[in-house]
Amino acid sequence: MPTDKCRAIYCLLRLSSRNLFNHRSDSNFQYLYQFRGFRNHIDTTSRLLEPFLAHPKRNLRICFHPLREDMGSSLVSAKISGHTNRIHCRFFGSGSTVTKRNPVFSTINADDIAQFKEILGEKYVIQDEERLLAANTDWMRKYKGSSKLLLQPRSTEEVSQILKYCNSRCLAVVPQGGNTGLVGGSVPVFDEVIINMGSMNDIISLDKVSGVLVCEAGCILENLVSFLDNQGFIMPLDLGAKGSCQIGGNVSTNAGGLRFVRYGSLHGNVLGLEAVLANGIVLDMLGTLRKDNTGYDLKHLFIGSEGSLGIVTKISILAPPKLSSVNLAFLACKDYVSCQNLLLEAKRKLGEILSAFEFLDGNSMDLVLNHLEGVRNPLSPSTHDFYVLIETTGSDESSDKEKLEAFLLRSMEGGLISDGVLAQDMNQALSFWRIREGVPEALMKAGAVYKYDLSLPVEKMYDLVEAMRIRLGPAAEVIGYGHLGDGNLHLNISLPEYNDNVLAQIEPFVYEWTSKHRGSISAEHGLGLMKANKIHYSRSPESVHVMASIKKLLDPNGILNPYKVLPPSLAS
Ligand code: FAD
Ligand code: MLT
Ligand code: ZN
């Protein structure tokens, strides 16, 4: 690139770069600036500054649509070894796995209902069909159970009494948070009792010196974000489903999300928790200490175990301080290798201020533009094969800005970035995030989706997307997006409708490929029902054996979220 052009770009960058949190709403402010070539003045508007994290468009409110005829599951009765069993066949998303209802489990009767009403009060024992339909159906409308009962405890004591009773009667249960899970873990497979945690939503305390927040498991993530924002803190995790998902669900899935690259795993941020075991015993592990090496750290068993070992009722979590300077760039790269090298450079040059590094390919962008209203490509009319979002968060406005600008300039000069814009206010930052966070929603609108959430070495990640495209041909739309900064690929295959022949082309190929490259078949969504039988692709037989032993120790009757996480043959 000619040096005079570089210099000019640099000057324009300096002029245009504004701090997202401290930007004043100047009238006629040129808020969209493209630093490829000299295309600026795209739009001029005066806007009111809205709190970045409390914008309604960032909330993904979950609404349920009726199940499509061709999706879901079918229940059939069949005679096996002389017994009549209900066989639950799943044809979508995970291969044609057949799950058989465990005959050990009882079915609910009138005495049970009376007992639950005694424990919870009538209002919190729900048998209403409409509410049950929603609670029986997952976010993707792919997995559907047939539970006849939803319980809404309001205290740990009530959870304890419910579980104690269910255990004594051998009634299977499904803990449910915001029901935004993507692996069929949050809904019943058959008639399990749904224990919804939404009524346990108190914020208990915030220590403003240590930043430790203690709250109940049913708090919606976004409510915690807003609460902390007012107190000068942030949550160490952020995800597109924040308007509905609950912190208990986040902890139980060990959710990753958009800030993982900066704040790391919930295994590090959760300082303590309270959980109720299958037999009703309450485990108080609600420590608030950063360092505590007193014996085995049992809380980790409950982080990411998807409700299969206990019900999480309270959590203490380390909230980082809210920093004043946030910047967001939406960039285009000509190929995947450039994205990869950009990540390497971003880690080196942005270091401690890097707070998100997300990517989506051109096909993901097309999907979002075609299916979500009001979304536009900030780099249009040009189209690109890869897009990257880089967010920085720091405490020094001018040096953070300088750092980011210098980095972007160098990356442009080096050919790693082919186009890009810097958000100039909150609304613009939100509109950039909307593109990335909107991919799952766009996929749902496009029709059927086969969803895979993989950890892979960054340099290999996109090879799988390309291999899948070759394998499936034009019949399917294969897209790749995700948390590049964490080596987490979301490989999604979009089709007008579910198709067993296509599925047979995808699985087990996708798992074998991942395993061959020493990746993980679940980076952040968990195993749920979808991948309970696939665990061996990422875990050794010895490890799975130990997991099954732990499950048996903590839940000998197997009542907690059966058929999920571990192969049913091992867990029951
Ligand atoms: P649910 O879906 O209700 O439950 C999930 C699992 O946890 C189930 O197995 C359930 O039994 C168990 N569970 C729930 N609450 C409890 C409890 N209190 N005690 C014990 N077990 C419990 N995930 C990511 O990791 N990163 C992302 O970036 C991300 N983005 C998403 C974007 C969208 C649009 C959607 C729809 C989902 C996304 N997810 C993401 C997946 C999902 O939101 C997360 O897994 C989330 O943590 C689930 O929380 P939830 O409250 O909805 O839990
Ligand atoms: C995301 O990163 O957008 C989520 O994990 C959801 C998904 O994978 O579709
Ligand atoms: Zn994700």
TrEMBL record:
Catalytic activity: (R)-2-hydroxyglutarate + A = 2-oxoglutarate + AH2
Residue ranges occupied by any FAD-binding PCMH-type domain in the UniProt entry: 143-322
One Gene Ontology term of the molecular function aspect: FAD binding
EC number(s) given by UniProt: 1.1.99.39
Keyword Magnesium set for record: no
Gene Ontology cellular-component terms listed: mitochondrion
Required cofactor names: FAD
InterPro entries: FAD-bd_oxidored_4_C, FAD-bd_PCMH, FAD-bd_PCMH-like_sf, FAD-bd_PCMH_sub1, FAD-bd_PCMH_sub2, FAD-linked_Oxase-like_C, FAD-oxidored/transferase_4, Oxid_FAD_bind_N
Entry-linked Pfam families: FAD-oxidase_C, FAD_binding_4
Keywords: FAD, Flavoprotein, Oxidoreductase
Entry keyword annotation includes Oxidoreductase: yes
Family per similarity comment: Belongs to the FAD-binding oxidoreductase/transferase type 4 family.
Protein name: D-2-hydroxyglutarate dehydrogenase
Annotated organism of origin: Actinidia chinensis var. chinensis
